[in-house]
UniProtKB/TrEMBL annotation, chains A, B:
Any one of the GO CC terms: cytoplasm
Keywords: Lyase, Pyridoxal phosphate
Cofactors: pyridoxal 5'-phosphate
PANTHER family (alphabetical): ARGININE/DIAMINOPIMELATE/ORNITHINE DECARBOXYLASE, ORNITHINE DECARBOXYLASE 1-RELATED
InterPro entries: Ala_racemase/Decarboxylase_C, De-COase2_N, De-COase2_pyr-phos_BS, Orn/DAP/Arg_de-COase, Orn_de-COase, PLP-binding_barrel
Protein name, entry field: ornithine decarboxylase
Domain Orn/DAP/Arg decarboxylase 2 N-terminal: 26-258
Entry's family note: Belongs to the Orn/Lys/Arg decarboxylase class-II family.
PTM sites of type N6-(pyridoxal phosphate)lysine: 47
Signal sequence bounds: none
Lineage: Bacteria, Pseudomonadati, Pseudomonadota, Alphaproteobacteria, Acetobacterales
Molecular-function GO term, any one: ornithine decarboxylase activity
Organism: Bombella intestini
Class of this enzyme: lyase
Catalytic activity, reaction form: L-ornithine + H(+) = putrescine + CO2
């Protein structure tokens, strides 16, 4: 936790549950990524956290933005971001969404199949398009399904069809999986993209960019490579696979940019063995759970770090099952990977959940069990 | 789909995605349950769908209500329901929530451990309490975890401690699991509760009721027992295990009451093989998914029925992967259990998802990917 967040919690004593985000930290992440890959263009993935304070901060630093819906276009434009700095990186869009984006002035769109390409040609004529490749997600802690992306052969054909439909074939994209902890994942994907790039050049199509999506990790509870290491791996692969000069790199970081900047401040609702014997784990119920924003604990994929008021006394820790506040029995955060917490932890204690700036505020349900959406503080 | 909903969709052509609920159907469900177990008291589980129109309808029919938070207390009281008709059936409550409920006039509370009992004694002195037992969930399609409930031995002790703390030990509760399709599940749980009931009588404590929670199923795509069959199984078990006269039955139906009354009306955003060969399944993307309210498709647990405009032509169906509209790759509804859909299905077609009245509107995220919460129509 940053000193600024610690001070805010001490002085303001905000009601729980809430999310507190340190904007200095977001700024630091942007600059570190920019320094690691200076010639790249950064499109912040708005879905990770669309708070206006974050959007304005990144806009001032020169960031571009990737959006997923008309709703996110509106949020960005309301934050003062011009349409020219927005890419529509979602491959699946209603015709209405495309027409809306086109009318607002967006010029760059993703796709991964002929049906979507035809929609783009009809509703955003003349726009720039990039085709998403399906790549392996080895090494990602939140790997992506087969929901998006196509084969190299299909991408090669589709980008030519794009030209025939009057669109501008501008790039290729891929996503190595969210919370990607292997720097090598990028090299393989870049090699694949380069193959298509060179074949398309022979057809008279020169792509402007390779969009490497997001995936850069946030530190949760196990070591991750530095952003410089990712930068070096990417730069090396680009030099190797584009010996005659590489196209521009586009990046769509979401989790990387805001994950470490946020802390969820929560309260213990109940801590009890509930009739189990001495050797059974305690159940600790917090006032935030899977339906209050911590959706990425599904399958116990993302494993957060917890800070309690009793952390000095490390000797007294015992393994706990952690659950959320709703009366939905699926609302359990960790049951297989027990969390060691101090024996002294009791009802009413405040607990901080670190690195929760991304994919928390928006996953929150509208009011399941009558609990209101998460309070947010951007400082 | 009821004729009333069909007419509404044809005449009103509402924007998608939306939920349409037929209140006549809710009324029918209430009456059928009341007829199946005439002496029971029905506490509608507000979390299943807290729409004011549903609450008012059930209140007029004589229903009681089970709530899970101060937010749900407020919703109910605003709908004109008196505090005396509300039970706080959630075993995990903040001290503030208990104090709030007590101040509003609620008198009946659940618990399953000594820590919660002490909170109740302090913040709702003199209240009636019931202890939740953990029971097997065999036969449930949405089985509950070990998050709630205690052992029979512990319940026996706790209800005596409740008396010692100045509270009124009023009942035992259990939950056989949501979407329970076996009528036998209730018999075993009733036997267990009866054992504790008789032992407590010897200690001078006579419980008023056995609360059998919810669990009665909604028809999705495979046959379920009728509510009369459940009623008979429960009545028989009560006579068997309470030969000298049974305590009152309390029921907390949620899904049963509203599930079959609702239809989600959605639009096809994209239908494509996305570069796969002829033998690969199509991907069909709808404008509602796991983050727009269909959270119970997690693990493909609840399998809905889909109606399309091309259903006459059953010969042309082929298996599809069904996905939601967000650019989150976890937002896939069915990938293992492919859904046979007409070959003619295309972008822009309207699709109805049946029996979606429960656990949809409130699971919806506040705005993930910039998509607004689900529109709701109660007719």
């Amino acid at each position: 936790m940053t000193p600024k967040i610690a001070r805010f919690l001490t002085e303001q004593k905000p009601a729980t549950p809430c999310l507190v985000v340190d904007l200095d930290c977001v700024r630091g992440q942007y600059r570190a990524l920019h320094d690691a890959l200076p010639s790249s263009r950064i499109h912040y993935a708005v879905k990770a956290n669309p708070a206006p304070a974050i959007l304005k901060e990144l806009n001032n630093l020169g960031s571009f933005f990737d959006i997923a819906s008309p709703g996110e276009i509106d949020i960005c434009m309301k934050a003062g971001i011009p349409a020219q700095k927005l890419s529509f990186g979602h491959t699946v869009k209603t015709a209405r969404s495309i027409a809306y984006a086109h009318q607002k002035g967006l010029t760059l769109y993703a796709f991964d199949c002929i049906e979507e390409l035809r929609k783009l040609a009809e509703h955003a004529p003349g726009c720039e398009v990039f085709c998403r490749l399906g790549v392996l997600n080895t090494g990602a802690q939140w790997p992506l399904s087969r929901k998006f992306g196509t084969t190299p052969e299909s991408a090669f054909t589709l980008l030519q069809q794009a030209r025939d439909l009057g669109l501008k074939p501008a790039g290729l994209s891929f996503h190595v999986g969210s919370q990607q902890t292997s720097t090598e994942a990028y090299g393989d994907a870049i090699a694949q993209a380069a193959g298509i790039y060179h074949r398309l050049r022979q057809q008279g199509i020169t792509l402007d960019f390779i969009n490497m999506g997001g995936g850069f990790p946030t530190y949760y509870n196990s070591p991750i490579p530095s952003i410089d290491q990712f930068g070096k791996a990417i730069a090396t692969a680009m030099t190797t696979h584009f010996p005659e000069g590489a196209p521009r790199i586009l990046l769509e970081p979401g989790r990387y940019m805001v994950g470490s900047a946020g802390v969820v401040h929560t309260e213990v609702v109940l801590s009890s063995k509930r009739g189990g014997g001495d050797n059974t784990p305690r159940w600790v119920y917090l006032d935030i759970g899977r339906f209050g924003g911590l959706a990425e604990t599904e399958g116990e994929s993302i494993r957060y770090t917890f800070q309690t008021p009793h952390d000095e006394n490390t000797a007294s820790r015992s393994p706990c099952i952690l659950a959320g506040p709703t009366c939905d029995s699926m609302d359990v955060l960790y049951e297989k990977n027990l969390v060691p917490l101090p024996e002294e932890l009791k009802t009413g204690d405040r607990v901080n959940i670190l690195a929760t700036g991304a994919y928390v505020s928006t996953y929150c349900s509208t009011g399941f069990n009558g609990f209101p959406p998460l309070d947010e503080h951007y400082i």
